[in-house]
Amino acid sequence: MQLRPGVAMAMAALPVAVIAVFIFYPAIGAVLYTLGVKGAVSLAFTAGATHQVFAPKGITLAVYTGLLADPEFQRDMLVTVLVAALTVAICLVIGYSVATFARFRSGPLARWVTGLYLMPLFIPIVIASYALVAFFQPGGWLTVFMYHVLGMKPPPSIAFTTADVVVGEVWASIPFSVLVLTSGMTAINDDWLQAARDMGAGPLTLFTRFVLPLTQLQALIVGTFTAIGVLGSFTVPYVTGPNAPQMLGVAMDAYYGAFGRPQQAEAMAVMLFVVAAIVGVPYVWAMARARASARRS
Amino acid sequence: MRARTWIASALSLLMVGLAVPAVVPATAATNATTTINVFDDGDTNIQQLFLNLGAQYHKLHPNINVNVIFNQHGLDDNSIYSRLAASAQAGKPAPFDITDGSFFSKGAAAGLWVKLGTKAVPNLKLVNPTLIRDNLYMAAPYRGSEVVLAYNSATVKNPPHTLAGLVNWIKANPGQFDYCNPSDGGSGDAFVQAMLSMGLPKATLTALQNPNKYTASIESAWTKNLQNLAALGKDIYRHGYYPPGNTNVLNLLAQGAIQMATVWSDQSTAALKAGQLPKTVKLLQLKTPFYGGAVPLYVVKNSPHVAAAEAFLNWILAPKQQLFIMNSVSGFPGIEWKYLPAKARAQFASVEAPYFPGFAGQYDSDLHTDWQKVVAGASSNG
User: Fold this and answer.
1) Is residue A103 predicted with pLDDT exceeding 90?
2) Global pTM value
3) Based on CB atoms within 10 Å of each CB, which residue in A43, B90, B118, B330 is the most buried?
4) Which residues of B touch A242 (CB under 8 A)?
5) Domain coordinates in residue numbering, chain A
6) CB of B259 within 8 Å of any CB in chain A?
7) Which residues does A164 contact at the CB level (< 8 Å), separation at least 6?
8) How near does any CA of chain A get to the CA of B20, in Å?
């Protein structure tokens, strides 16, 4: 059913207006604040803030250059991006394993395994973070196991390290990747795979020449949304992570509140947004291409 | 035809519905019920405290309702403060009238709170005048707690009583002491402030405690102490892991992972009472006490019920209510100890001490930043 252009515009007008007023307008004000424009945000909001930089006229990049020159910020940004990349890689590996297993070995076992990997969806992330700490910390289950069963004295513990953060982020991101990849697998036609097998293709060839290319878009979706989610995450690094280096979500919260430097916190947010936007580019390009080819065919 | 009757009846119902509120205020005006909105951002025990105080106050003054707005652990504090500041800027009535929220110094800098005087709040005379002056005459402490040293008396036979003694104990017992991230909890903040204040001249300390003047350059006085604190990190639990919050440190103490920690007196006493800490854990205060958090209670300037809020605040400062508060939350009084009944005073003799003011808001913020850079960065985890 085709809508008249006027009706379609009217239907879209309300959500666009909501986004424009409640997201774009304050976001533009915040960006101007980070560029040193006085009065871009309410003065009562910034009362008591320290280390603010305002330009006498126009804009200044001093806040950004200051942050970029700060070795702590550089380290935090690096760790944030690394954790996101690692999480995406591990999620894709595990996601493809589960999805491929479920696709080619249908049955109760496959359903159980898939269901198990969807469990993290139902467990609040705060509880999961504390559970991870209790599991990994010295005196927790893992170290007691390593001490008594494996005889490691003293047993190492990854609690309160960046490794623990990666484990937590993977744990939280697995369900999404399993869901999307299993749904992508259903689009692969059994006949093609049968034909390829008849021609003598082994499992590895099937995977690399058929499964991977046919689920490209799904892998891209998993990668993009997992990465963007991990880039801005707070709870897992806050509870399970080290004091330094911090992920940017925790650092931004500290700068905004405990450090009394909202201008720097907002500048960090802008830079993180730029990184996330760059991460989103392949996805947007792929979606546009998919839509264009669908329109053509 | 049917559609039209539907619309007609709907419209008439709407008219009636709109007319009702026009009638109701007339009846409400004759009752003159005032509702005081109290905003609190602490833990659930403080929420319960205000609910109890509100119920008691309502019994005494049936025409006044006390409504408690609660935001646990101050998670939404930033947005709530922004809303309040916006209402003040727009000249609209504030969303709450009286609060003990953690954004006192921010709002004081922006002029959002009422200046309290002994005419409207006579019980201000019972409070230590230094504390009122430190709060820029805009707040009165209504309860308090001090940061104390908690230690496991089963494993620590001779606990230290001075800060220098504590540092020596930490070095002699690596991994057995911890304090929380100063940005996330006052118990860690107090320890860091005490360490940074070691050996500083009195004039510098007074300047750091002064909320009226912020000169970033005087912070260079604490650089050496900060580096010592960073070096001490290798003898801290897990070679320098500082948990994010007061409760996490109490958990470590309860699990036996550490034997000594800086904790809030009210939080740890309540935990001991509830059996969350082993009975062998004891509290002591150092010769030079860690800072006390005298929690300020203050009235919002653009509140629609300033006089009622001030009367409520005055009632809270009375010795009877102060005793009730102390027993409810295992805390210290906001008024001076000498105004409490002698029997109650005797109970707290071992920890009774005047509140030690901490660094003023902006210096404390810079302390958090410097600590993160120097001390957290030095830890060998990551």
Assistant:
1) no
2) 0.79
3) B330
4) 241, 379, 381-382
5) 1-69, 70-125+160-296
6) no
7) A132, A133, A136, A158, A240, A241
8) 31
